[in-house]
Amino acid sequence: MRSEGCHLKASLLDYLLILVTAVVLQGLGTVAVAVPRSKCYALDNSSRIVDFSSWIGLPFEYEDKDSDLVVRFCKDVERRSQMGYVDFGRFDGFNGFVAGSGHVDFVQGFYNGDLLKCEDSYDKRGRTAQVNIICGNCSNGQCKGGFGCICRVTYESSCRAFVELAIPCEKPGPRVFEGFTVGFNPRSSEIVYNGMTQIGFEMSHHEFSFRTEQINVALYISAIASVSTLVRKPSFKVSPEKGLNVKLSGSGATGSPPTTLSPTVLIVDWRCEKAHSMPFGVNITIPIEGYEPVQFFLTKMCEYRQDQGGDSARGWATFGVISCIFIVASTLFCCGGFIYKTRVEQVHGIDALPGMTILSACLETVSNYNFGICGLNVQILVKLLRCETDGTVLEWPICPKDDIIRFKRYRLV
User: β-pairing, 264-272 with 244-249?
Assistant: First the structure.
């Protein structure tokens, strides 16, 4: 009974520890400039996030003589009449919500509407609509208060509509460093895209954690060249604080200006100092001068302790460098010795190679100055070529049956 009580107490302590750590990680993660959960957001002219996620699907109706036009915020635009509905496009989540100019604060694009009598429209996208959003009231004083209204509707053609919509806009959020990306490849942006931390890296997630055996992660950082000098040296925090050893290296760790053509590399070296039941969260912060800092989380599991001894990869690299130095030095020594013997000592052929004299002496010692030819021990024939007045004669040993070495002469004509 006592052991069960101790076990229950330990389980409760573990649960409380996990709960407190999760709350801390979530609190730290909310500091990051994270991308909104929906596509219904825009960056204003001062690069601040304005999130309209709570407005999705909210209808705005404009009554005309023959037909009514209805805008469903961040969804679609329709013209309704007794003849039926005509679709003027659906909201384009990719670059479909941008900052405006002049008295227009934001612009929404709606594409791929009905194709009837609009088959030859631009890019074959059918009927389209552009909604110009004004933060406040219409210029004619319409729709004061409430959720706003449509000020006016104009048609460029039967395939293109322009809508002016006045609404009380949301309060702008943090300022975003546009064009800034962080990814696992030089041209990717899985972690940070356009200055906003992507879903999965805005806080510690078990689903996005790295395995224990991965001891380093390379991150590629890029920014627009004209503002890349605003990027500063990154820093990090680990939670829980003890149990994971983290070091930053690479060109990105020094605060070098990254560009789209030459991204900087931030290498995260991490090793588990002890096993842990829950993942470690590494909160990396990259300061940007004049903007909100870019923050993101990397999560790692520690199922076992990783030794802090010499890295095998570094050992092999050292061995490779030493081997290269030895090979180059040996090559230079052989070439120098060969040139010296041929030029100074007038030695030619294989005998001019350095070390051949020692090698020959060793071979003679091992063989006791004799070599076996045709199963016999014969003395090495040192001089094979001799000159006579009648020409050059080549002497070659042959093996007779009576075990006596004789020489057969061949006259070279």
Answer: antiparallel
